[in-house]
Each structure stands twice: as C-alpha cells, then as structure tokens.
Design goal:
Number of strands of chain B: 14
CATH architecture of chain A: 3-Layer(aba) Sandwich
Shape of chain A: globular
Number of strands of chain A: 7
Distance between the termini of chain B: 40 Å
CATH class of chain A: Alpha Beta
Order of helices and strands of chain A: HHEHHHEHEEEHEHEHHH
Low-confidence stretches of chain B: none
CATH class of the largest domain in chain B: Alpha Beta
Number of domains of chain A: 1
Largest interface: A-B, 50 and 45 residues
Strand order of the largest sheet of chain B: 3-2-4-5-7-6-12
Radius of gyration of chain B: 19 Å
CATH topology of chain A: Rossmann fold
Low-confidence stretches of chain A: none
Shape of chain B: globular
Distance between the termini of chain A: 62 Å
Largest sheet of chain A: 5 strands, parallel
Oligomer: heterodimer
Number of helices of chain B: 12
Number of helices of chain A: 11
Helix content of chain A: 40-55%
Strand content of chain A: 5-15%
Mean pLDDT of chain B: 97
CATH topology of the largest domain in chain B: Rossmann fold
Structural class of chain A: alpha/beta
CATH superfamily of the largest domain in chain B: Thiamin diphosphate (ThDP)-binding fold, Pyr/PP domains
Order of helices and strands of chain B: EHEHEHEHHEHEHEEEEHEEHEHEHH
CATH superfamily of chain A: Thiamin diphosphate (ThDP)-binding fold, Pyr/PP domains
Helix content of chain B: 25-40%
Chain lengths: 328, 322
C-alpha cells in the first residue's frame, strides 16, 4: 500500500521531535541537569519513525541503550521522558530507570535496555506470547550493529525463525560498536547477510532515508502479521555524536563524519517533502516551531517535578514485598 | 491423601495451573517429546500439546529471555533450564532483565515467570552438572527463590510460584526426583513459609532441599545420644521465614545451618549472619555452618561423596555444641 501524505508528515514530526529532544538532552547533560549517561539517537532519526509508522498501538517494540528515538516514535510521552531523564518522581519510571530504562506498557514499549543484545531475546518472548494468545500483533526489535556479535543475536534469530515469530529485527547499523568501527568488529559489510543463516529475509536499506525504511518495514510487518515469520532489516546510518555524551569520539575519522553529515536525514527529508509537494516550506517551518515548543514544555515540566523521596527506593522491587529500610 | 514422587509433585503443580489457565506454558530443552531430562514433564506434551509444552533449541539466553518477554506481555511462562549450572549462559536475562524490569520501569511491568532449576550433586555428573547455585540468585533483589524437599511442597510451591507476579526461581534437587511422599493437599504453599519437620528442644538444624533428609537422619541418631534436634525446612530462601528461624533458635539456643552449596559465599552464610545479627541473645554457642567443600564438584563417587555435606557432619557439629 502506498504511503499517504499524512503518514509522511507524521514521520517528519516524529523525526523532528527526536532531533530536538536529543539536541536538548545533549545540552542539558552538558549543563549537569541530567545525571548518569545519555546515548543519543542523533543522525538515526529516519529509522524508528518510519518503522513505527507501520505499527499499531498494540504492537510491541524492544529498544536499546540508545532508546529515546524508539520511544518517541512509538508514541512515548515527551514530558514523562524528560522528567525521567531528570530523575524525577513523576518520570516514566519514577526516577528509578533513567535514560536507559524507559518503558511504557500501554504503548507496547517493552523497555529501553542497558545490556547490548538483551532485547533480541525479550522480543522472542513477546513474539511467542503473540502466537500463544493468537493475536495478529507484531514486535519490532531495535538494535545496533554492535549487538549482532552477541550470542543472543544468534539464539534469538534462530528461535524466531524456527517458531515463525512475528518479529521484525531492525538493525540500526551506525557503523560503530562504542569505539570499534564495523570493519574492525565484524568481517561482513551487510548485517542483512546474516538473515541467510536463519533462512529469513535479510534486507539492507539506506537508514537515512525514511521512505526506504518505511517501504522495507511495511513489507516485513505485513509478513510478520500474516504469520510468515521474522525479517532482518538492516538500516545503514551514522551516529553523529559519540557513544555517550561526553565521548569526544576521537576514533571517528573527520572525513567520514563530514561525509555522513552531508546525508543528515533531517534536511534531506524536509527537502524531499517540499520537493514532492507533500508539505510546503511554511508547513515544515510550522512543524519545527510546534515541536520546539513541545520540547521547551517538556523541559519546563521536568524541571518542575519533585525529586523522589528516599523512602521510594525500597518500593517496586517486587509486586508484594517492600524491602527493608535501614537506618543510615 | 496420595503418594507421589517429588518429580510427580512438580509435574502435577504445573499441570494443575496449565489446565486452569491457557496463559501458563512450559518451555525448555527437551521438555516436550523427551519429557524433560529428568522425566519431570513426561506426558505433559500429550495433555497440553507441543505449543504449550515446547521444546527449545539449546539457547539458555533465549529461553530465559523468552520467559521475560512472554511474562511482560501477558503470559505466565515456566522456563526450564536442564541443569541449574546452565544459569551461567542465561544469567543476563535473569539478573539484568527479569529481576530488574519492575523496578527499573517504576513498577509498571509485571514479571510472572518461573524458572525451573534442577540442582545438586550425587549423580556422578561432575563439576558442570552438579552445582548448588542458589546463593547467586538469593543475592539478586527482584528474584524470589524456592527449594522444595518433598512431593507435597514441590506441588504447593509450584502453584504459588506460577501464581506469583514476580520471577520465581524454583530449585529442584535431582537426587530427590524419585523420592515418594504423601501429598495431602493440592493447595498453594505460600512463599516465605518454612516448616518444622521434626520437633526438638536442644539444637535447631536449619536447612532445605536434600539436606532435610540428612538433617532428619542426624536428628534420629542424635536422639539416641540424648540430643533432641529440631529440623527446619525453610522451603523458601527468599522471602525467608525469619520468624520461624527466630522461634526455633529461641527454643533450642543452638543453630546448625546446613546447605549443599560450597560453603564460601553461600546462602548458609546469610542465614547464619541473620541468626547472629537478630537472634544472638538466644544463642548459647556459635552458629555452626555446614556446606560442601570449597571445590568444584568432583566426579569419582568416593570424591563426590566426600565433597557433599552429610548427616555425620551434622552430628559432629551438634555434639561439639554440648
């Protein structure tokens, strides 16, 4: 089915939300407003919005340490996200998860994840659950190229293949596993080649082009919904920042960075929309303004939220046991 | 009243809930057609079909991860690891995922899953198929840990484990699989409740799993020597029945903690520390802690027997107290 103008606009809005959210997070982190680690999705914005455009609210996603983009694309609430990054009591995880652990069960977001390669197995469980319950939901498993060298990648793609689980394995190949470039961390160029090992389709697309991602994802989602099993979809992209904020990324060649900045998905997709008459330049500008306001509001919201009371530290370890509070 | 083996107790516990709730399912290596490495799930595939009694590839990470994802999306999975020793291969999914999701996500994701963990030495299976690794799991906030010693408890604890909304680690002792016992109740046994297996007034032997039998044997022999031993089967390691430990120690003033794990860093140390911290005033002697040798589990039968704690160790420890 051809993509509608509305869908293209929606993808742009989400891409812009991610770009602005991440840019704000970078600034807030540098200012010391956000504790811990943040791993930003800057440069990869074309992928999650295009994939999630093919999903329903009741579909699932698993995410990664670089998860803000996935969560925004699946409909996560910007205010609750920002409040969680700030470590506030009213954030998504009551201040107990932070950047790497945002989840929203009502939106099918089974959690960002601090362990590289962990989401693959969890996606299998969601896929199994869908099959046992007999629904036509699907699960998208987002992961980076680095995680394709974990044993869990192999275990999960094999399991998903033999059980025909409704999973779309979306590899966001940003060409780096932390500091190690893809040509140093694996002997293949296309992660998609590994699909052959599991007898599932392996497709590589330009991950900085949301139209290409959408087209491939739509087919993979349809295949999964029809009970035909998983697809490995590789989206080639680039991490514009370091692995985490504060990483100067000295391991990235300057020419490489510059070449990828030329392919930045944001101006590229905005240009595409205007050229093809999907949006006018004024409409693009209006979206940019509206999103800038949303992010501003999210920051103001987060800043006004209460810091968690220390007594909450012992809650939610179990459904029914509150751990012992000790005198300090 | 019915006689059942320990493994039949486990199987019946699973089957009762699977008959009632289509969201309960069992998966693991060879649990289906093969009936499980120790025969625990024998015949279940005939009753529930291959979808719900599901053979998996040899992929422990994906097995536990599957349970995590299934539990997060509405099922109540039971995952079997063929040997608890294989926890090493699936540990990330258990420790970093299953145990932490509820907390990390602010209480918004429930994790009703059971992991079955056949454990223990005594089968000549050597160092990689004989360990008692419960302390690895009791150490992790977010997990519950149970360890039944008899058929009735195996059944009742399985029901409670499946009913629980948290990940429950269910240890099964391999040597006990064929041990028959009376099953008087098909009701769930609440997690965190130990039981008195034999009453006594002079010394408390606090234990679980296979060592309950060693403790009962020791108590019988000690009685002949005029020492009256009380035997406590904890059944749940977390939550732990501290009240029962306090009661028995306040009565006998002597405590022997017996576990099959290697003693170094074991859960027996935790139990001993709790007694020392919270019930010190009741004690007339230092807590005695009995465990296996601090070695890998050896193969040759004579070495394996030497490695494991036994009734003689308990008797010796008790006599040293008086």
């Amino acid at each position: 089915m051809a993509i509608s103008n509305e869908q293209m606009k929606d993808m742009y809005v989400k891409m812009r939300r991610i770009r602005d959210f991440e840019s704000a997070a970078a600034k807030l982190f540098a200012e010391g407003k956000i504790p811990g680690f943040v791993h930003l999705y800057l440069g990869e914005e074309a992928i999650a919005p295009a994939v999630c455009e093919c999903l329903r609210d009741d579909d699932y996603i698993t995410s990664t340490h670089r998860g803000h983009g996935h969560i925004i694309a699946k409909g996560g609430d910007l205010n609750l996200m920002m409040a969680e990054l700030f470590g506030r009591e009213t954030g998504y995880c009551k201040g107990k998860g932070g950047s790497m652990h945002i989840a929203d069960r009502d939106k099918g977001i089974l959690g960002a994840n601090g362990i590289v390669g962990a989401g693959h197995c969890i996606a299998c469980g969601a896929g199994l659950s869908i099959n046992i319950r007999g629904t036509d939901q699907v699960c998208v498993c987002f992961f980076g190229d680095g995680s394709t060298n974990q044993g869990t990648f192999h275990e999960s793609l094999n399991m998903a293949s033999i059980w025909k689980l409704p999973i779309i394995f979306v590899c966001e190949n940003n060409h780096y596993g932390i500091s190690m470039s893809q040509d140093r961390h694996q002997a293949i160029k296309d992660v998609a080649d590994r699909g052959a090992a599991y007898n599932i389709p392996g497709i590589a697309v330009d991950g900085n082009d949301p139209m290409a991602v959408y087209e491939a994802a739509e087919e993979a989602v349809a295949r999964a919904r029809a009970g035909k099993g998983p697809t490995l979809l590789e989206c080639k992209t680039y991490r514009q920042h370091g692995h985490f904020e504060g990483d100067p990324a000295i391991y990235k060649p300057k020419e490489e960075q510059a070449a990828w900045m030329e392919k930045d998905p944001m101006p590229r997709f905005a240009g595409f929309l205007v050229e093809n008459g999907v949006m006018t330049a004024e409409e693009v500008e209006a979206v940019d303004k509206q999103v800038a306001k949303e992010i501003e509001d999210a920051i103001a919201f987060a800043d006004a939220q209460p810091i968690p009371g220390v007594e909450t530290a012992v809650v939610d370890v179990y459904s029914d046991i509150v751990e012992e509070v000790r005198d300090r | 009243m019915k006689m059942m083996t320990y493994s039949e107790g486990i199987r019946e516990g699973m089957s009762i809930r699977m008959r009632e709730d289509p969201n309960v399912l069992l998966f693991g290596e060879d649990v289906g057609r093969f009936g499980g490495c120790f025969g625990v799930s024998a015949g279940m595939i005939d009753e529930f079909g291959p979808e719900r009694v599901r053979d998996t590839p040899i992929s422990e990470g994906a097995i536990i991860g599957c349970a995590v994802g299934a539990a997060a999306t509405g099922l109540r999975p039971i995952a079997e690891l063929m040997f608890c020793d294989f926890l090493t291969v699936g540990m990330d999914q258990l420790v970093n995922q299953a145990a932490k999701m509820r907390y990390m996500f602010g209480g918004k994701i429930s994790m009703p899953m059971v992991v079955r963990l056949p454990a223990g030495a005594g089968t000549g299976a050597a160092a990689q198929h004989s360990q008692s690794l419960e302390a690895w799991l009791t150490h992790v906030p977010g997990l519950k840990v149970v360890y039944p010693s008899c058929a009735e408890d195996a059944l009742g604890l399985m029901l409670s484990a499946i009913d629980d909304d948290n990940p429950v680690m269910y240890f099964e002792n391999k040597v006990l699989m064929g041990v028959k016992g009376e099953v008087n109740s098909l009701e769930p046994i609440p997690l965190g409740k130990g039981k008195v297996c034999r009453e006594g007034g002079d010394v408390s032997i606090i234990t679980y799993g296979k060592q309950v039998y060693d403790a009962l044997e020791a108590a019988e022999k000690l009685a002949a020597d005029g020492i009256s031993a009380e035997v406590i089967d904890l059944r749940s390691l977390y939550p732990l029945d501290k009240a029962l430990i306090g009661e028995t120690v306040s009565k006998t003033h002597h405590a022997i903690v017996v576990t099959e794990e290697v003693r170094r860093g074991g859960y027996g140390g935790e139990i001993s520390a709790i007694i020392a911290e919270e019930f010190f005033d009741y004690l007339d002697a230092p807590v005695a802690r009995i465990g296996a040798l601090d070695t890998p589990v050896p193969f040759a039968p004579v070495l394996e027997q030497y490695y494991m704690p036994n009734a003689a160790d308990i008797i010796k420890a008790a006599k040293n107290m008086f």
